Amino acid sequence: MPSPAPSLVALASLVDLSTRLAAPSSEALGDGALGDEALMQTQRSLAEVRRRVDAWSAAVAAEIARRSRHELGEAGLARRLGARTPELLVQRLSGSSTHEAHTMVRVGTLISEPSPLDAVGAAVSDGALSLDAADAIRAGLETVDTAVPVESVVDAAESLLRDAGSLTVEKLAARAREWGAELDEQHILDRERALRDARYLRITPQRDGMTRLSGLLDPESAAVVVAAYDGATSPRRGGPRFVDPDEVVRVEKLVDDPRTVEQLAVDAFVELVRLGTDAAPELMGAQPPAVRIVVTDRDLARRAGSGWIEGQTAPISITTVERELCNRGTVPIHFDSAGHVVNVGREKRLFTPRQRIGLAVRDGGCRFPGCERPPSWCEAHHINEWFRDHGGTDIADGILLCRHHHLLIHNDEWRVTRQDAEYSLVPPPSVDPTRAPIAAPAKSRIVERALELSN
Fold first, then answer.
1. Does the CA dihedral 281-286-290-296 come out positive or negative?
2. What are phi and psi of 86, to 5 degrees?
3. Measured over all CA atoms, what is the biggest interatomic distance in the chain, rounded to whole angstroms?
4. How many angstroms separate the first and last alpha carbons of the chain?
5. What are phi and psi for residue 166, nearest 5 degrees?
6. 455 residues of the chain, pLDDT tens digit each
């Protein structure tokens, strides 16, 4: 039998309560007004009120869905009111998100229609279970094959309900999936394929010039991505501190890094994509991916104005243009007075693959003090800039910097100097008003060993 719907008397009581509640204020919740225990009990009481209100919202959403079912066509409630689906109508009426509207309809159906999950719907109606917890149980058990005995599904649902009070929604969902797999072993592969088929990655340019990444990962793909994310960010997210002694220095540097956890994650992601395209260009088709920077000679010469990254709408600073040209080289394109291209010059100001090998062997990684990025994670920085200092492209006037520190050098007005084979970093006044040079030793002992052998 379906779960009993919340009563209209209970709904009237909730509405009356909501109208009598004053707006929350710091005076009403301060130490003098509420002690710790009273504060926590207030939170528990409000959570129960919310669950009861949500139960009504779910029941009403399910009824809206029933009155908008597909076979009614244009006569359905949602279509008559201009909504393409009942979930969109629920979203409009409740001011909720798309996800919340779909959850309300799904859980409301548990309340109103008979199923092996009647106990879950009853717990929602009684205010004992949240909509998210109920939907987690539903997602784990609803896909079980109909050949599985109903009693087994009922037992699993009741077991999950007993555990729900001590588990987060995420852990409850995981346990529900475990129950589903145990009850229906024959279709584990089918469910795995369904999850994989649902994977996607969406790239959405925004009006402010940023680009949003959104998507879903199937469990196997997520395992790879989450492991990389954890490796890049775990010390900053309270990861294990009892690490191998060789890792202590790296962990301390990461903890002290001024970037947020989210910024560390996106920088690591970009580096992994860049390294992947270099290591496996066959994944990218016949043409390797190219990032083109467009800027005029005049703006570049006067170090003012702006440039553009091809395919992006937001202008970039000349500082960023200089950093990108430092790493990528230039291809000058000349136009006539009518705007026609009359000459595309040869690429120049770019280290050759052989020179990059020499830099990698000599430097052993990023030359910024304290950075342990290997050569494969680094870009070649020109000490004497071609576009500013008319420098040449040779190994002596180049050093390796990881992308983060290459960006720091250009954007924050650091300078790199060389005296014979010794390289130093000159900080900006904001870091050190005296601008005392900081030694930038190589991570490789090959140069030191060569000097030892020559003496």
1. positive
2. -65, -35
3. 96
4. 92
5. -110, 5
6. 455 455 656 666 666 666 666 666 666 666 666 778 888 888 888 888 889 889 999 999 999 999 999 999 889 999 999 888 999 999 999 999 989 999 999 999 999 889 999 999 999 998 899 999 999 999 988 878 888 899 999 999 999 999 998 999 989 998 998 888 888 888 777 777 888 888 888 888 888 888 888 898 888 788 778 878 877 777 655 554 545 555 555 555 555 667 788 888 888 888 888 777 766 665 655 444 556 677 777 777 788 877 777 656 677 787 877 777 776 655 655 454 544 444 444 444 556 666 777 777 778 888 888 887 878 778 888 887 544 444 455 677 788 888 888 888 887 888 888 887 788 999 988 888 898 999 988 876 655 555 555 55
Name the pTM for this structure: 0.52
Helix axes 188-197, 219-233, angle to 10 degrees: 60
- Residue 399's region, left for phi above 0, alpha for psi from -120 to 50, else beta, is beta
Are 156 and 117 contacting, i.e. CB atoms less than 8 angstroms apart? Answer: no
* Cβ contact 185:150 at 8 Å: no
Whole-number Å distance between alpha carbons of 67 and 75: 9
Burial letters 201-240, b for 16+ CB under 10 A, else e: eeeeeeeeeeeeeeeebeeeeeeeeeeebeebbebbeeee
Spatial neighbors of 62 by CB under 8 A, at least 6 apart, are: 104, 105, 107, 108, 109, 111, 112, 113
φ and ψ at residue 206, rounded to 5 degrees:
-105, 160
Rounded-to-integer distance, Cα 387 and Cα 401, Å: 19
